[in-house]
Amino acid sequence: MQKVVIVGGGIIGLSIALRLATRDVQVTILEKNKCGGQASGAAAGMLAPFSEIGEDQDVFFDFSLASLRMYPEWQAFVRETSGVEFEFSSSGTLHCVYHEADLLPLSSRISWQSEYNEDMRILSQEQVLEREPHLSKDIKGAIYYPNEAHIYAPDFVKALIAACRNLNVEIYEQIGEVEIVEGSTVRLKTDTMEWEADQVVIATGAWAMKQGEALGLQLPVYPIRGQICAYLPEKPLVSHIIYTSQGYLVPKANGTIVNGASEDIAGFETTVTAKGIDRLKRWNKKMVPALEEITPFHEWAGLRPATQDGFPFIGRLTNHPSVYIACGHYRNGILLSAITAKVVAEDLLGEVVSFPLQAFHPERFS
After folding, report:
1. Rounded to the nearest 5°, which phi and psi values hold at 7?
2. What is the per-residue pLDDT for 222?
3. Contact by Cβ (8 Å): 212, 313
4. pLDDT of residue 42
5. What fold does the segment set 90-148+222-306 form as a domain?
6. Ranges for the FAD dependent oxidoreductase domain (predicted)?
7. Low-confidence residues of the chain, pLDDT below 50?
């Protein structure tokens, strides 16, 4: 039986482990801190490639859309395998604009996006307010994306962990730094423990640059702090994802509204700042005026792994053929977990990979 060790217990590492565990592979996850403790568990959980990728079609958009289309089956598999319930909502998105001049770009945007046979359409101000009467009347129109969705990230991470354990994946947390030593097999060790593997996957998100340096690889992955807050209104204020150029609102089944996100460069600092949350407060009232009267009940931050060109790193290293990289998913780790797990498992097992990965090769900057 092949042994694979995955370094990193975020949503990407957990998802790859789960896919491999269904294929008669002995899988171990090594997590420096706590599984899902950074970008994964701190996300709003949006599955919204049409809203977030609007400039033009490229390979990253195709990758993201393919993952969105996998999600109904993927989340059902995680739910069944774990026995853990979590929210998956096909709410759709209203991608809103505030100026008459922005209505024409909406037409340009939908002209290429509609080639994907999605049932999207432009809504007038009247149609937007008919769907969401609590939205600001400053909104001039929107694109309605009915097939976009969201997931409750903290519970989804718990389900992934439980699913992995139910399929006998060994998970080690709070183990500190991991050193990789190559030979006839790969050895991974900390100050107190050691593991052996046929292949290793580095899925350490914003911390991947350090492992890259140890392997002589230029792997430009940078931590971007994303700050988010949440509201608990007395009555439901929105039912769709509300997406704008400056922020978004995601309504959850528990009655809360997640409001994100302020981004800044702060190294590996994850404290919440007044400046970051105040920016959200200033903008959210421009989406839903009633939020101005409500104080967020929860504020948090996580580190998002950004790459130099915006594409993730996915692939095997030429000079280290036992080492595979899967990181740098930035704001889309939850969305891309489905397809990343599928293609990495295929590649590790020597199968035909179902999506071309050349654009994401980890050595493209070396």
Report:
1. -95, 110
2. 93
3. no
4. 67
5. D-Amino Acid Oxidase; Chain A, domain 2 (3.30.9)
6. 3-346
7. none
